[in-house]
Amino acid sequence: xxxLNYTSKYFVIILLFIIFIWATFFYxxxxxxxxxxxxxxxxxxxxxxxQKAKKNPSILEQKQFEDGYYMIHxxxxxxxxxxxxxxxxxxxxxxxxxxxxxxxxxETSFLMEDxxxxxxxxxxxxxxxxxxxxxxxxxxxxxxxxxxxxxxLNNFLLKNTWKPFYNLLDKLKNFNIETEEKxxxxxxxxxxxxxxxxxxxxxxxxxxxxxxQQKQFIENASHELQTPIAISINKLELILEKNNxxxxxxxTFSSVLQHLERLKRFxxxxxxxxxxxxxxxxxxxxxxxxxxxxxxxxxxxxxxNYKNLTIQLISQEDLNYYMNKDLAVILFTNLIQxxxxxxxxxxxxxxxxxxxxxIIKNESEKNIPLDGEKIFNRFYKQTGLQNSTGLGxxxxxxxxxxxxxxxxxxxxxxxxxxxxxL
Amino acid sequence: xxxxxIEDEIDMLENMKQSLEKEGFLVETAPNKQSxxxxxxxxxxxxxxxxxxxxxxxxxxxxxELKNNGINDGVIIVSAKDSLDDKLKGLNLGxxxxxxxxxxMAELNARVKAVLRRKNFEGNKNIEIGNLIANPEERTVMVNxxxxxxxxxxxxxxxxxxxxxxxxxxxxALAEHVWGDHIDQADxxxxxxxxxxxxxxxxxxxxxxxxxxxxYGIGYRLDIL
Lengths: 422, 225
Description:
With 422 residues, chain A is α+β, with helices and mostly antiparallel strands. Chain A has helices at 3-55, 128-161, 163-173, 191-241, 247-277, 289-299, 301-306, 325-342, 392-402; strands at 70-75, 86-94, 99-112, 115-124, 285-288, 310-315, 320-323, 348-353, 357-362, 407-412, 414-420. Chain A contains nine helices and eleven strands. Chain B folds into two domains: 2-120, Rossmann fold; 127-224, Winged helix-like DNA-binding domain superfamily/Winged helix DNA-binding domain (Arc Repressor Mutant, subunit A). Chain B has helices at residues 10-22, 33-42, 60-68, 84-92, 105-120, 152-163, 171-179, 190-205, and strands spanning 2-6, 26-30, 47-51, 53-54, 57-58, 74-79, 97-100, 127-129, 132-135, 140-143, 146-147, 168-170, 210-215, 219-224.
């Protein structure tokens, strides 16, 4: 849920609650005020009736409301509470409405010329249900009006207030730790946001630094390993050249040598990977992929022929791409190598060059789809191939990433590696 | 034939020295830039193996100095960096070859010999071994004055083994030299065998007196019968 909607939701709920309480309170105080004013009017009318009665005793005979707003009733004895006003609500049949309507009634008693009288004065009352309905609608409109204005204000205000925040989110989304570029932060007057910016800047800086250090470490480590490995290999080569070794000794040395060779290859691949990631292959040229692949297929002939694999190169279109030549060679070498290495004996490897894509297809001994995500991970090895460094496909992926030509794997009757040169 | 190795890694230096001395070269060594300068100031060498990363400076300075003084020694740059930049710089400065570390001893021999051949035998570019004459530039091989038809790989294998004659060349070194760097992740190097087989057959047909021996399945050695 968006921040904007989140606050709006709370506003809607809280306002509903507050306005309800406020409306109730308002209604009762309103009603109270109305009663108060009606009662004052009634009291006034009572005074008027009494004055009138002094001048004109005939009105003392007004026994029904009929054409007036009061009635007087003669009492046979002294009422208990003489002269005390008593107000109450009651219903009365109204001619115009043809219905009983609520009226406010003042009942009192008075003494005039030794006679006790009871006086009732009425006044038409506001219809309570009408008032509630009116009030309800007014409050509903008020509520909606408030919500609407809050939403508009909220939208406007929040959008403006949170602008630095959304900018930040946008930038973080596009942030790539592998690139050296830094995020530029807009200055903001809001302290929290400027603090957030500052902290994120520091965090990113630290991550970039540690990423760089890690890369540096791998590079340095493989660099440092190179010389001792080379020396050991060369020493063993020199020992093996001496003719004074018996077969068993020679084979042992040779086995050590082979393991060192593996280590050397692994180290070399690791170094290559860091070099690609560090953008150390700069010179670029226009490369004809068709020619390159033709050459590579020839180079691989002995290699594939040994497994009785046929590599079929199908050039549907001429494909040229601007990239570093060494990397282009490494990219396709690794992919073809992968196909040959895992290819099924006596089967066929198909390399298809179409307008913008190159697809390399091979069958394997166990024709089951591989995990398209994991196979490009470093050191991911599914087969127990001894000589595999587990880096070949990661290197291919790193190269394709560098040139943003998406290298992907899918399975369609056979293993397919597709590169898109766009 | 005199060779100077300029290399700061003592063990590396020792290996190279040992391997080249086996080939009958006179080898001198310099572990840093300063001693290298004093050596090239006094002596002439047929080939200089030059490590770029020296403790007291860039080895390319030595190359510059040599070329400035008009000294035409053969120079092979040896570098642990294997960077295209260094390679281009070195070759532009007049180096004859560039050998990235790590390398096989057999590869070192082959490179040194190739440089020496280009430098010293301007008139005669042939290599004679037994009754076989090979011309690496023209890529031809004759036995008893009859041309032997070899394909590209057979020829590369033969020339490499000739450069390392009487020495064991292990399969990895051979595969890397002939099939290139990128093929080095092969499951095994058995595919070399079929090429060797063909090569042996052709040499036998032409009654050559050199023989390619398999040594314990580790590698091959070219011997003169």
